[in-house]
Design brief:
The complex is a heterodimer. Chain A is an alpha+beta fold. Chain A contains four helices and four strands. A four-stranded mixed sheet of chain A has the order 2-1-3-4. In chain A, a hairpin with a 5-residue loop joins strand 1 (52-54) and strand 2. In chain A, helix 2 (27-48) runs antiparallel to helix 3 and helix 3 (70-97) packs across helix 4. The N and C termini of chain A lie far apart (62 Å). In chain A, 25% of the residues are buried. Chain B has helices at 2-26, 30-44. The chains are: A alpha+beta, B mainly alpha. At the A-B interface, helix 1, helix 2 and helix 4 of A face helix 1 and helix 2 of B.
Chain lengths: 135, 66
């Protein structure tokens, strides 16, 4: 009897330990991904020109407005605004989908590190101290 | 002796079970979040994981010699 109880406890604890996963497959996440994917074609040249940078908290910032031709500056700014709205919504949605709205900042910072890690050579990214660094 | 041992076992497992629950419910799963972030970023930036594009062997006839 005791043996079975022990086995049951062990099995249960294994199952519970294995559930360290994050839920990211929600309709909201999919549509945010699609929206950001569509915008990336326009953002990419701005990253390459050094006009935009990736912040540590998982957002995009206009780092050097002078690198954008004057005629495009307005549209670039609104592009960045839309991108940051999507990103904020993405982090919030992942936190919410996992039942922990308070994780939003942690998720944003985790994404921040990963966007920076995956940024291409020549792009500008924010260092831990907040300074900009070209990869 | 046997009884004490098995009781200790039960207590240890219960503690492990409880700590697992606490870990999942309170602490931010950083490793899982990084994995999720990587998947999403690869999709948004359309980065192909290296395994998705296997490089064809330029010399399929050539045998690899040690």
């Amino acid at each position: 009897m005791k043996k079975w109880l022990m086995l049951g406890l062990l099995a249960l604890s294994c199952v519970v330990q294995a559930q360290g996963n994050l839920e990211v497959n929600t309709p909201a996440v999919s549509s945010l991904k699609a929206s950001m994917q569509g915008r990336f074609a326009q953002l990419e040249p701005l990253f390459a020109a050094g006009a935009l940078g990736l912040t540590r908290d998982g957002r995009v910032e206009v780092r050097d407005p002078a690198a954008i031709p004057l005629a495009q500056r307005q549209s670039a700014t609104s592009l960045v605004g839309a991108e940051n709205r999507d990103r904020t919504a993405l982090y919030r949605e992942i936190a919410r989908a996992n039942g922990h709205p308070e994780w939003e900042a942690d998720i944003a910072n985790t994404f921040g590190g990963r966007w920076i890690d995956k940024a291409r050579a020549g792009w500008w990214v924010q260092e831990a101290g907040g300074r900009w660094k070209q990869k | 002796m046997q009884k004490i041992l098995s009781r200790t076992c039960v207590v240890l497992m219960a503690v492990s079970l409880l700590s697992a629950c606490v870990t999942i419910n309170i602490y931010f799963p950083a490793a899982a979040a990084e994995m999720a972030a990587d998947r999403i970023i690869d999709e948004v930036w359309q980065l192909q994981p290296p395994a998705a594009q296997p490089q064809p062997n330029p010399n399929p006839d050539k045998k690899v010699t040690p």
